[in-house]
Amino acid sequence: MGCIPTKALVRSAEAIHTARRGAEFGFHADVEVDFPRIVERKNALVATVRGGLERGLEQNEKVELVRGFARFEAPDRISVDGRALDSERIIVASGVEPHIPDIPGLAAVGFLTNETVMDVDELPARLIVLGGGAEGLEFGQAFHRFGSKVTIVQRNRRLAPKEDSEISAAIEEILREEGLEILTGTVPTRVERRGAAIVVETDSGRTLEGDALLVSTGRKPHQLADLGIDAAGIEGDPERGITIDEELRTTTPGVFAIGDVLGRVQHTHFATYTAGIAVANALAGEHRRYSPARVPGAIFTDPEIASVGLTAEEAQAQGRKVKVGKQEMTKVGRARAMGETKGFVKFVIDGETDELLGMHVLAYHGADLLAQGVIAMAGAGTLAPLTDCICIHPTFSEGVKAAAGNLRPVEILDAAGDLPADAASERTR
Question: Is 393 considered catalytic here?
Answer without folding.
Answer: yes
